[in-house]
Amino acid sequence: MKKFRFRLEALLRMRRMEEEKALGELARVMLKVNEQENIRNEAFRMLNEVMDNFSAQHREDFQLDLYQVFDRYVERLNAEAADAATKLKEMRPELEEYMGKVMEARRNRRVVEILKERDQAQHKHEVQRAERREMEMINGRAKPDIFGSLTNEHTSGTQQLEKFSDEEDEFAGAPEQSPA
Predict the structure, then answer these.
(1) Which of 115, 120, 175, 180 is the most buried (most CB within 10 A)?
(2) Taking the model in full, what pTM does it have?
(3) Residues 86-109: pLDDT tens digits?
(4) Contact 6/116 with Cβ under 8 angstroms?
(5) Residue 37 near residue 84, CB atoms below 8 Å
(6) For residue 17, what pLDDT is reported?
(7) 72-78 long-range Cβ contacts below 8 angstroms, 24+ apart
């Protein structure tokens, strides 16, 4: 029996490559998003750390210029965190676009995979049917196939009729012998 060969294998390979490409683009965008999230988180972490340290060190003695420097530093950390948050918001549409492309590529690949699974199941069914038919012929219990050709049971009866007909023709063509 023929080995299974999927007629749309090239399309399936192409769909897999499209999915991999979309995943690569998504990974690139996710890298940028993660970088911005890390910058934002680091800014908040530094802000909390500096606030705790400053308040612990300068609880009792208050110096105006030191407080002003500290205040500018805190403003810069807040601005850095806000800038990172803004960039994250700007990246969301791009991220969602690439996520949509990945979903679309997965859907397209899955459609072709389902077709392949169906073709494989049909091929397996046909192979099993042919094997069953072959076994029936071997066992002498063959039945006519869908095209109406005769199998063992019918052929043996037909052959007997032909044999009888041939014997009859020979008998008819032979000279009559008189009973002597």
Answers:
(1) 115
(2) 0.59
(3) 999 999 999 999 999 999 999 999
(4) yes
(5) yes
(6) 96
(7) 74/47, 74/50, 77/43, 77/46, 77/47, 77/50, 78/43, 78/47
